[in-house]
Design goal:
With 461 residues, this protein is α/β, with parallel strands linked by helices. It has eleven helices and 19 strands. It has helices spanning 2-33, 71-75, 80-90, 119-129, 141-155, 177-198, 213-222, 236-247, 279-288, 291-314, 321-328, and strands spanning 60-67, 96-103, 107-114, 161-168, 200-207, 227-230, 342-344, 356-358, 363-367, 374-375, 386-391, 394-399, 406-408, 411-412, 419-420, 426-429, 432-437, 448-450, 457-458. The chain starts with a helix and ends with a strand.
């Protein structure tokens, strides 16, 4: 009896699949005979602003912030850093201005922001480079960054890109542990926020394994800069060349999204009317209808389905429903470790007081509605725009049919299709940019890893 019941069930399912297939084929045939649907009314593309003048000179103010502590003497005995800065000056592009600050116990401005227009300017800057002697004590990185920010705010040009190139081989060390902890927190939060508000990007280079790569990575992400790590002084030129290529290109601008506010009583239903085909079109479509080919297609699909069902029966692939439900429900909920991941709000659209948004829940909802875990109060953001979910030790980004979309490293995320995240990823909800950071993880993304005597390997995004 049980065998007969199972056989009957299989027959019923086969018949159901057959009926569904024939209905789908019929609908497809009818649609195909109707001809190509009329083109949709043209929708204006998002406004991106006036076309830029391709001949316009790019204005960039670059401030070198260089570690001058005694440990650099052991790690860079040939003073390759000085040679790198010299090479940068010799190949300085039109529209660039440069300055230089060294830091050890304190920060010292050894060359104010200026253009290198004459031989005398170059000679003056070269002479200042000799002050890099690696004889300082301690590594007061917060003091150096603060002095660099002040110089760019005071003497930087209003319409210029403002860049800090930070190179250090150590951690924050002032000789006072409590002061070091407070200074690191101040650099990571307040100074990074000041840089962001002033439009200053920090390009951090962690030189040797002793450098605080986590701190450099965090500052770079919060200021929309980049972070690098190198282990030998001979590899520093390759990193500087990479930075030079990045800052020599105009920054990408997100397309503008125009949102028109409409009162609720002004909203009217949208009615789409299909144009009535002409008599000539109707005659053409009638001539192309071929019922024989339609029936032949249905017969082929029926045979495929029938063979597939016989295969399932022989291999006993039809499992009881209760077993499947039990297997799916066996996965316990997981919570991510505290402090393991965070979103960097690079544009301060969530809050004006902090750039870091911790990811501490299994599922973090992101959207315009106040019920979400992360609220982005912008009209171009959907009520529930996306989620970040933690499962099986990884974080996943998923778009929930948002109107203006979600992008991961400039690639559009398909709706309801989770994509795995890694530290340093760029996330864009509509036009608003964030960075995903896992401080404890190894560097990914645009980080440059250089080891041994091999050529530098630049990891793609």
């Amino acid at each position: 009896m049980k065998s007969a019941g199972k056989l009957t069930l299989i027959k019923i399912r086969t018949l159901s699949y057959l009926v569904m297939s024939l209905l789908l084929i019929f609908c497809w045939g009818v649609y195909a005979q109707e001809g190509k649907a009329p083109d949709s009314p043209s929708v204006p593309a998002p406004v991106t602003g006036m076309e830029g003048d391709t001949n316009k000179t790019l204005m960039v103010d670059v401030l070198f912030l260089l570690d001058n502590s005694g440990s650099m003497n052991a790690n860079d005995p040939k003073f390759i850093t000085r040679d790198v800065v010299t090479n940068f000056l010799m190949n300085l592009k039109e529209g660039f201005r440069v300055g230089m600050i060294t830091f050890d116990r304190d920060a010292t401005l050894i060359e104010a922001l200026s253009s290198i227009d004459t031989v005398a300017d170059a000679e003056r800057f070269m002479k200042s480079l000799s002050k890099i002697d690696y004889k300082g004590q301690f590594t007061n990185t917060p003091s150096g960054v603060e002095r660099a920010v002040y110089e760019l705010k005071s003497n930087g040009r209003e319409n210029a890109e403002k860049i800090i190139i930070l190179l250090t081989d150590g951690i924050v060390d002032t000789g006072n542990k409590e002061k070091d902890i407070a200074g690191e927190a101040w650099l990571r939060d307040q100074l990074a926020m000041d840089c962001k508000k002033a439009g200053i990007r920090v390009f951090g280079i962690a030189f040797t394994e002793m450098a605080d790569f986590r701190l450099i990575q965090t500052i770079a992400l919060k200021t929309e800069g980049e972070y690098f790590r190198t282990f030998k002084s001979e590899d520093i030129p390759a990193v500087f060349d990479k930075i030079d290529r990045i800052i020599s290109q105009p920054r990408e601008e997100a397309p503008r999204v125009h949102v028109v506010e409409v009162e609720p009583d002004q909203i009217k239903p949208i009615i789409i009317r299909r144009p009535v085909p002409s008599q000539a079109q109707t005659e053409t479509q009638s001539k192309t209808f071929n019922p024989v080919s339609l029936l032949l297609s249905g017969l082929i699909i029926f045979v495929i389905i029938f063979v597939f069902m016989i295969y399932l029966k022989k291999n006993k692939a039809i499992l009881p429903r209760k077993t499947t439900q039990k297997a799916v429900g066996a996965l316990p909920p997981q919570e991510p470790p505290k402090g393991q991941a965070e979103l960097i709000d690079t544009e301060n659209v969530v809050t004006e007081t902090d750039l870091s948004i911790p990811i501490n829940s299994k599922v973090v909802k992101i959207g315009r509605d106040e019920s979400n875990d992360i609220v982005i109060p912008k009209d171009s953001i959907s009520s529930l725009h996306a989620t970040i979910e933690y499962r099986n030790g990884y974080f996943y980004l998923e778009d929930h049919r948002s109107t203006n979309g979600t992008r991961l490293n400039n690639i559009k995320v398909k709706e309801n299709t989770p994509m795995r995240l890694k530290s340093g990823d760029k996330i864009q909800f509509a036009i608003f940019k964030f960075r995903f950071l896992m401080p404890e993880m190894a560097p990914y993304g645009e980080t440059v890893m250089i080891q041994n005597n091999t050529e530098p390997h630049f990891k793609p995004e």
